[in-house]
């Protein structure tokens, strides 16, 4: 009777092992979650706005409030554009991360269609920094502080 149990157990294991191997292989080939993340490596609260081209035209959105030493996902899922634009403000010390591309922002939470005539439409104009994601499915930008030559701290924006 023990031989019957042992041979049944061995047969069960022989059937189970290929299934376990297949599940493990599928788990390793599952694609990673894709998104556009922003990390705040400063010691201050940072407010972030993002701009991008959608099917309907240019869109700017904000504000995401990112605590010191933390990250937030601004766009979930695979990225649909190659170029994204960021503008951010240090909520505690008044610095900002900006760039040469003008887009619209608002005082409070916003989602604005179009990037022209910002002031005439009741918005503010801000300079956004361009990020070329190279059509990758996900992207991460990290805000850091770069010491200036006079000892003051100047924000720096790095993309990856």
From TrEMBL:
Keyword Signal set for record: yes
Keyword Signal: yes
Entry superkingdom: Bacteria
Pfam families, per the entry: DUF1036
Signal peptide: 1-34
Keywords: Signal
The name this protein goes by in its record: DUF1036 domain-containing protein
